[in-house]
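REQUEST ID: PR-0412
SUBMITTED BY: lab tech R.K.
PRIORITY: routine
TASK: structure prediction, single protein chain
INPUT:
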Amino acid sequence: MDMRLMNDMEDYQRLGLNPKKVEDWEAQRRSPRARNAWETWTVGATLDDGTLLDITYATKDPAHIGSADDAPVIDLTLTGPDGTVTHATRSIEADRCTFGEGGLDLGFDDCHARGDLRSLRLTATDLTLDSDDTSAISDEAADDQTADGEDTTAGETDDEDDAPYTIHGTGFDLHLDTQARPLRPATGIFDYGHDARSCVGWLSPMPVATISGTIVIDGMPRHVTGHARHTHEWGTIAPSDAWNHVLTVTQRFHGMTLTLVDITGAHRTGYIRYPMIFLTNERGILAYSDTLDTHCHSTVTGTATAGDDEGAPYPTGITYTFDTPDNGTIAYTLADTEPLGDAATLRYATGAFGLKKHHIDTIRLTGTGTLAITEPQGARGRHAIVSHGTVIQSDDTPDTTDTTVDSYDDPSLHATTTTYKGPAVATFRITGKQFDVRHAPQIVTEYVY
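STATUS: complete
OUTPUT:
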């Protein structure tokens, strides 16, 4: 089975996509109502108190991916700095859900996700908690909320441009405002055939955004702020038939933001790999991107398993080095990773009578991320970033900087390396049994836009 990132002009024309920019309509529903079809709109955030927030609106509960009908669900997960997890969900009847066009416009009964590429509002109420543990958000945040005299049974937001929203039990009312332009690798669609009928799509409408609002856990409201990313994924092929594993990292280095998505196809593709890197500058403009495995050299320095020896494998250390057009490199190292909380295992079935059993293990990892940018001294500015021959200036001072100049007889060959280092959070999803596999080469079309 092939796996190809659709990236030639015929692909753009057939899909109705603008090759120069992402448009609002691309955030709307893209998947059909059919067996093995699925779609998710996900927000992942790091709140100011260190809590990790994950929200997903999905057309199908993972257990129903093999079904021809929708089985909509909203999922909320809070992971505290100490690893404490609070999880709540709400399943909604398909006939009570609407999917608008022209932008993101999800109506899951009385819960919504609405907005465009610049701002979003997410609301949900009456979610069901998995347990009575409500300590994922720090006690300090709860104390602040109590001191402010907030109602402990409902959370309301009353902005000038938005109607108030009342939360019963467990839910949220959150606002996102983007700080960067959307990310889409080529068309954003991976074709697993020759007609795009079996495909997987990936789009980041908001690679970096501010997030603020109210989260209510079992009647206790808490005001939250932080930074988030919004990702839109969909497919017409079961995840276990599409990819073996996906590693996603978003890390901020002062004004710059790194987004790295390492997608490795399923065994049937020969483990074809797409290591996708995006680096945006302080103005939210894409400064560098690449998706070609021939430009990327990766080294796995360690692996481990979540839980016992039979648990899901994950990388404890991995380095990606991308060759840039100016004979420089951009290298990212994720090191000393440890699972934050237990791995979440989602099980589902496909095929006739649901006889084919599958699973997806999702592991949140914390560790240290290091970004090293090596450029010729001829590049303008000490912290310049080169993209397609265009130099984009970045004047921010990194937390940790190591600047070295290589010594050659020819001054034009001198290069400067600037290193940024800080705490990192990654999401690792795996459907197979192995992580460190031998990759088949990418399928690249002759004419690429």
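NOTES: The helical segments are 9-15, 139-147, 239-242.
REVIEWED BY: pending
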